[in-house]
Amino acid sequence: MAQITPANAGRLERAWLVHTGDLPATAEARARYGAETTPLKVGASLYLCTPKNVLMALDAATGKTRWRFDPKVADIHIPYTAACRGVAYYAVPTAHYGDVCATRIIEGTLDARLIAVDAATGRPCPDFGFGGQVDTTQGIGQNVPGMFSITSAPTIVRGVVVTGHQVLDGQKRDAPSGVIQGYDAVSGKLVWAWDMARPDRTGAPPPGETYTRGTPNMWTTATADEALGLVYLPLGNAAVDYWSGLRTSREKANSTSLVALDAMTGRKVWSFQAVHNDVWDYDLGSQATLVDFPTRQGPVPALILPSKQGDIYILNRRTGAPLTGVEERRVPTGGVEPQERSATQPFSLYHTLRKPDLTERSMWGMSPIDQMICRIQYRLATYKGFYTPPETKSRYVEYPGYNGGSDWGGVAVDPVRGLIVANYNDMPNYNRLIPRRQADREGWAPRGQERGGSLKKSAEGAGDPQAGTPYAIDVNAGWRLPVTGLLCKQPPYGGLRAIDLLSGKTLWDRPLGTARTNGPFGIPSRLPMTIGTPNNGGAVVTAGGMVFIAATTDNLIRAIDLKSGRTLWQDVLPAGGQATPMTYAVDGKQYVVIMAGGHHFMETPIGDALVAYALPGPAPSSAKGANR
How many other C-beta atoms can be found within 10 angstroms of the C-beta atom of residue 422? Predict the structure, then answer.
């Protein structure tokens, strides 16, 4: 809808605000909360899930709660983050109007259940699994709470509910499987399971066996082509991210790859690998976006695949073949297991969000002392440029860090104007592999085997045990100074870019985010200065030529002119906006909604508010009756 435009965006105001009521009950839970949901609109209702998987249906015009269903997920099941990124909607083709669960909402939970409820009432669907739920841990084997979760919306294609799982990073080589499962959307019965180590077995393992443990998983969102009957899986790494010596050939072939499966059989059709034998935690966090890509021979069904290392690939979605060129380039080798490092890695010839390699001049600080410390750290570290291999004798620099480039927010596409809008991070990580004996002395142990120790678990990888391998990993995410908490790399730390879809050329690029909530020792500076902050979440592009995005650490939502990249309007959210906005219309009136729930990793305030914005006044009379 094109009701909100650059000409009137400055008049936007809050239309309504709803509190979900899902807030952490303990300090421990608060340290692991991150509301990342994007609501789904069907008819006149909005459907969403909260961090601990409470399902809600709201009146899309007023925000009034229509129903609420709580699957009662306990805090013990929170993995790294209590997050639910979204839900799926399914209309049963054979159902009649008024039938129970003729239309249904399906979500995955932190304790790895699939839940199906009636879209009209919120009551569990009696025909789905057992009382409206399916236990996806069947066949997984040994599994402690929090190790095996569902945090992203399932993808439904040709009546099959496809789900992966978040397998907690960095814990142990013998972690639960990364198996991908497909369930019947009506009955909840297992249709197929893709265990990459056993590709000829398409069902559950026989009694006494489990799905292959430790294989690469899909924690993020799959996409699908209903016409082709393919589902596209952005895969991560094997169970231990920073050590590869124990990986099997099939794990190496599928890790950090986009894999296409036949949605009806679960059999692999094709794959495209973005990183060979990845030891940088560059798992594919972004979903692949479906587009019709313009070529001289006409539009080709394609996928836009962003990556944490910054490269953007354009792939034929029938075959996985790159449409815009990928070349193998030589990269640094060596590190602790030089025989495992690939001499080359794939580089996209279409576009990259990645900036040039760091230099000592890139080191920054709010004072000369900060800058001096950062430059000393730079000199003491191993850094050979992009793809520097892991080291144990010293710190090593990973740039970009594991937060991207692009992460789970992905990219937004305007197919009419032929534009891609991508927000991205631009920060290094400062890492070191820790010998097993030292990690054991520190008490670093996998989930479920904790025994105390001096570990300060502030970020993923900051003391992950990687049990079953020679090394643990210690990641300084963002390369922060130990006292002030400021980052060593000079700003900007994040940006927003518009890219021409046909050519891959940058149209505009700008830092995203101000310093208003950032400062030394965690004290907000209140400075409105644009520095480009770290960001998590995505953007939405509208027919009216607008980009809406929150994502940054300054707790603002922005309306940005798609043509120029200029901010036309902004509002302070009641908590962090680490989620992707969405837009819709009810009776001809356009709304923009954003989940303002905050995020522990981004260090933004935790909250439970879903906020809707619209232009003042009633809908235009000529548009009355529209509901789309």
Answer: 28
- What does each C-alpha distance from 355 to 256, 362, 446, 628 come to in angstroms? 21, 12, 35, 40
* Res 182 pLDDT > 80: yes
Write the single-letter amino acid at 195.
Answer: D
- Listed residue (289, 588, 320) closest to 414, CA to CA: 289
Task: Spell out the alpha helix ranges (H) of 33-164.
Answer: none
Here the tokens at position 310 are 């910054």
Instruction: Tell me the C-alpha distance between 53 and 113, whole Å.
Output: 10
Between CA 381 and CA 477 the distance in angstroms is: 15
- The per-residue pLDDT for range 187-197, each reduced to its tens digit, is 999 999 999 99
Contacts of 356 (CB under 8 A, 6+ apart): none
SS3 440: helix
146, 144, 162: which is closest to 154 by C-alpha?
162
What token pair was written down for 220? 């993020």
Q: According to DSSP H, which parts of 394-455 are helical?
A: 436-442
Task: State how beta strands 419-425 and 411-414 pair.
Answer: antiparallel
User: Cα dist. 476→104, 461, 471, 486, 584 in Å?
Assistant: 43, 8, 16, 12, 40
How far is the CA of 268 from the CAs of 302, 320, 549, 577, 610, in angstroms? Answer: 18, 12, 35, 37, 39
- State the pLDDT at residue 509: 98
User: Domains along the chain?
Assistant: 9-217+386-623 (2.140.10.10)
Rg of the chain, C-alpha, whole Å: 23
CA distance 101 to 122: 9
CA atoms within 13 A on the CB side of 428: 33
Is residue 419 a contact partner of residue 541, using CB atoms and an 8 Å limit?
yes
Contact (CB, 8 A) for 477 and 461 = yes
Structure-model confidence comparison of residues 216 and 531, the more confident one: 216
Tell me the pTM.
0.96
Q: 83: Cβ–Cβ under 8 A, 6 or more apart, which residues?
A: 34, 35, 36, 51, 151
CB environment 515-537: b (16+ within 10 A), e (fewer): bbbbbeeeeeeeeeebbbbbbbb
In whole angstroms, what is the distance from residue 595 CA to residue 575 CA? 9
Tell me which DSSP letter residue 8 carries: T
Whether residue 405 is preceded by a cis peptide bond, meaning omega within 30 degrees of 0, is yes
What is the identity of the amino acid at 298? G
- Two tokens, residue 482: 């130990």
Question: Active-site positions?
Answer: 281
Tokens 């969102």 correspond to 221
Above 50 in pLDDT, residue 581? yes
